[in-house]
């Protein structure tokens, strides 16, 4: 039996971690790690499978005969516009670990805003014994935009914490215990939302989606007075200058942002200094490399056994 061609890996993750785990991953076929300088000019024309996250711009020119492309994350926007993208199945990463991490982050941010953690932090630095009386979670409506695997899991866990949860997606989803809305009901959804959680994929329609006009439609006068914007979806889906203006102008009472149009966030960006704005460095749901490689192995086994691939991207929708 001829040897199986290795898996092409071009992941802009921590290179030492990727290299270490690849030593034992894909034991039946091996891998070509493009982060290794020895592979800089290697012939890739015989490669069947590629695992990618923010790959080099010429990747598809160098590897023109791919059969399946695997994304290193839940999204696929890091390579969808690269030249030469072949017409083959594209599989996004879906894993219990990634889903759990995202829900942890979303719940944590909602709780920090609910319990006014920014004021406790401020009081601690000033050595002030400042007691607060925050509302209960049940008094806050969390509106989740994006009801895929991540959004649905976050909704379930927020409900466990006592929040009222509503959800929005382009086409309406049926979720037990969650009032849901579709694209035609956007304004109604926003008018009922105190904490807006962004988990939308990046598509032409969602680019710049979270902007001044949208923030102005969120509920004012709720249990905390002002609405809050929480985004762990995609950085290019938000207009950062509008977030700054909305917080400064009192349209938003605060924000939690994990993703940015340009990363890392510039040290002089005004978001850093805003009160009640929590910044995290795109680590809300970092992909676990071991889980990622196992996911790829499972999907390749399905494909080669004639079973349908899971988590295949709809190219027309972009997710």
From TrEMBL:
The keyword Zinc does not apply. Residues 108-282 form the D-isomer specific 2-hydroxyacid dehydrogenase NAD-binding domain. Pfam families: 2-Hacid_dh_C (PF02826). Keywords: NAD, Oxidoreductase. GO terms for molecular function: NAD binding; oxidoreductase activity. This is D-isomer specific 2-hydroxyacid dehydrogenase NAD-binding subunit. It comes from Rhizobium grahamii CCGE 502. The lineage of its organism: Bacteria, Pseudomonadati, Pseudomonadota, Alphaproteobacteria, Hyphomicrobiales.
């Amino acid at each position: 039996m001829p040897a199986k061609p290795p898996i092409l890996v071009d992941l802009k993750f921590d290179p030492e971690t990727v290299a270490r785990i690849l030593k034992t991953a894909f034991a039946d076929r091996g891998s070509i790690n493009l982060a290794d300088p020895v592979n800089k000019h290697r012939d890739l024309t015989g490669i069947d499978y590629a695992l990618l996250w923010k790959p080099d711009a010429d990747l598809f020119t160098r590897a023109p005969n791919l059969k399946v492309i695997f994304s290193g994350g839940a999204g696929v926007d890091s390579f969808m516009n690269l030249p030469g993208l072949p017409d083959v199945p594209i599989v996004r990463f879906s894993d219990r670990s990634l889903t759990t991490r995202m829900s942890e982050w979303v719940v944590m941010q909602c709780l920090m805003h609910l319990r006014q953690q920014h004021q406790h932090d401020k009081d601690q630095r000033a050595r002030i014994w400042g007691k607060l009386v925050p509302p209960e979670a049940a008094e806050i409506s969390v509106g989740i935009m994006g009801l895929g695997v991540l959004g649905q899991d976050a909704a379930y866990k927020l409900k466990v914490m006592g929040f009222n949860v509503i959800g929005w997606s382009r086409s309406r989803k049926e979720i037990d215990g969650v009032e849901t809305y579709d694209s035609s009901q956007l304004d109604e959804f926003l008018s009922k939302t105190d904490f807006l959680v962004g988990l939308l994929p990046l598509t032409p329609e969602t680019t710049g989606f979270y902007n001044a006009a949208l923030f102005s439609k969120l509920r004012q006068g709720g249990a905390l007075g002002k609405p809050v914007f929480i985004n762990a979806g995609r950085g290019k889906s938000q207009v950062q200058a509008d977030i700054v203006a909305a917080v400064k102008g009192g349209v938003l009472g605060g924000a939690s942002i994990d993703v940015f149009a340009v990363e890392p966030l510039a040290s002089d960006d005004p978001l850093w200094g805003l009160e009640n704005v929590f910044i995290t460095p795109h680590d809300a749901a970092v992909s676990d490399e071991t889980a990622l490689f196992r996911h790829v192995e499972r999907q390749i086994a399905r494909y080669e056994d004639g079973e349908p691939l899971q988590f295949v991207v709809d190219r027309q929708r972009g997710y």
